[in-house]
Amino acid sequence: MPKTDTIVINTGPILAIIAGFGELDVLKSLYKRVLVPYEVCMEVLAGGSTGFGVREFNDANFLIKLDKPRIIQSYLKNSLDLGESSVIQTALDERIQTVCIDEALGRRIARLNGLTLTGTLGIMIRAKKEGHSFTLRETIDQMQSQGVRLSERIISFALKQAGE
Question: What is the pLDDT of residues 50-63, one digit of tens each?
Fold first, then answer.
């Protein structure tokens, strides 16, 4: 959970934060700039079969929603899904140090590209440490009830970091 004021965020964390908090305002309070690549916007707006998160994403007018697709390096496109590869490419192109990606392979490739990482739970831990009033355990339970998968090891680590 790096202390930074600008991040590029992937689809999974956007939807997980919505699942946990019901909105994305926590991002507004933690970061001056939150960039969402065009490809990630399209994934969120597709909404899956239920349209989950679309309204909350549209309501988050503080997000910098990029309106043009990226030219993504082939080594990223060939290794990752479109959202993750666009997050890494955007960070590299815009010289933004920190990305928010939850998937292990995406995190590994981001590290190999010299980027700093956070994830959904990293954002929540930072929010908790910066004085936001919520119970991480309840937020995690809410995320899981919406289908967000988290390992017990990661949950245990996050709760310990948050002092719960």
Answer: 788 999 999 999 99
The CATH code of the domain that includes 142 is: 3.40.50.1010
Collapsing DSSP to helix, strand or coil, 118 comes out as strand
Strands, E, within 26-85: which ranges?
A: 33-36, 64-65
CB-CB neighbours of 139 under 10 Å = 23
State pLDDT tens for residues 123-146. Answer: 999 999 998 989 999 999 999 999
The H or E element spanning position 100 is: strand 98-100
Looking up tokens 């503080």, which residue turns up? 62
Sequence-separated contacts (24+) of 44-48 with Cβ below 8 Å: 44/11, 44/14, 44/15
Residue 23 lies in a domain: yes
